[in-house]
Amino acid sequence: MKILGISIVILVFLIGFSLVMDILLGFDLYTSIHNNLNPFLVMEVPELVLFFFLIIYLLAASARRFFKKKKKGTDKDNKYHQSKK
């Protein structure tokens, strides 16, 4: 989950930095947002499918690791409580 969180924070900062740079260059907010979204707007269907597949894979891998760690922690707690009896 740390990797996912760090990736989102970096994405937000980079988009914000790009918007601020465009505004400082004299573009209005609508044009700045359009400039940021333009690479996604010109993608063809196979590129979009691959992009969304990679995003879904990243989310699924993070969720799998999170639940695996949570289950492993729960198993340790159960063993601890059973050995105490």
Summarize the structure.
The chain is an all-alpha fold and 85 residues long. The chain has helices at residues 2-24, 29-41, 45-84.
Q: Tally the beta strands.
A: 0
Strand content: under 5%
What is the total number of structural domains?
2
Structural class: mainly alpha
* Distance N to C terminus: 35 Å
The largest β sheet comes out as: none
Spatial shape: elongated
| Proportion of helical residues | over 70%
Cα Rg: 21 Å
Instruction: Please give the oligomerization state of what you see.
Output: single chain
Low-confidence stretches: none
Topology pattern, helix = H, strand = E: HHH
Number of helices: 3
What does this structure look like?
With 85 residues, the protein is an all-alpha fold. The chain folds into two domains: 42 residues; 42 residues. It is built from three helices and no strands. Helix 1 crosses helix 2. The radius of gyration is 21 Å and the shape is elongated. The mean pLDDT is 86.
Q: How would you describe this structure in keywords?
A:
85 residues; mainly alpha; 2 domains; 89% helix; elongated
Structural topology:
Elements: H1 2-24, H2 29-41, H3 45-84
Helix pairs in contact: 1-2
